Amino acid sequence: MYNLQVCFLRDKTFTPLPFFPPPILTFAIIMATDLCPVYAPFFGVMGCTAAIVFTCFGAAYGTAKSGNPVFLLAGNNTITGVGISAMGILRPDLVVKNIIPVIMAGIIAIYGLVVSVLVSDGLKQGQALYAGFIQLGAGLSVGLSGLAAGFAIGIVGDAGVRASAQQPRLFVGMILILIFAEVLGLYGLIVALLLNTKATDVLSCG
What we know:
By secondary structure, this protein is mainly alpha-helical. The chain has seven helices and two strands.
């Protein structure tokens, strides 16, 4: 298995390094270059970044879009440009009631934060390329799902708050639509957690 021949050189003896047969040496080179390249952690880092960046984009859009009409509600259930101060004085009941879309939009960023922490915890030097691809897929799953959910919450919240201010009976319908928009991000979170579990099961290269 190993070449343990003793060589004589100037009255000194030494044992040469072990000799690996060509098939084993070839397999080791393939493992080091194709299956576990040095750039494999890059895909995991990009998955970690995509998870938090895209979900924050969705949360920011949903918060700004659905929070805009909250600052425009004041007196007699009409849309005006008075601002939050006048609204808090004239209709304080509308502030807390119509802040729900903003809260639901902010929750989306938490989904991305959870996945980013889990993916970053699994990053290591010398990891398999397969694990890096899985981590990238996990980050994109929750990131793009959160982006879509944030857009949906922002549009529904904008129209729903304006409509419920004029017709309070529409408030329950707005909440139901917001729930179905929020669950889109939850689907991405579930898939990302499942993918990240597969990535942790992959053996490292060293």
